[in-house]
Amino acid sequence: MFLYHAGFMTAGFLVLLAGGAVARYAKRRRWWLRAHRGLGWGGVALVLAGFAAIFMGQEEGPFQVPHGWLGAVVVLLAVVTPILGHLSFIMREKSATLRMVHRWSGRTTLALMGLNILYGLFIAGIL
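-> structure tokens emitted (127 positions)
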């Protein structure tokens, strides 16, 4: 199951990173928001699959090491970030604040996710 966990999480990270890149560099294109949303939710789906994979076929819980706890925070942030982005279109009076929190939440998610992937590779003895 480790390979599924690592594969889904790495794929989720790369898809979320692509979503952030679209938002950062393709805003002048008409398709940027649709691509950003699709990549964001696709990345969340992959992250959730990776999170679920760690529970399959494992007798002890994943929260025995800091990597597991940081992973739980990353999963929570990965889910909350697109919700914040979506809310910025619904709650118009708070859209500026929600957009700012959405941006920083996305950046924080990617940074923590990258660090946790490296930490997981270190724990597995790959790095």
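The helical segments are 2-25, 32-53, 66-90, 95-123.
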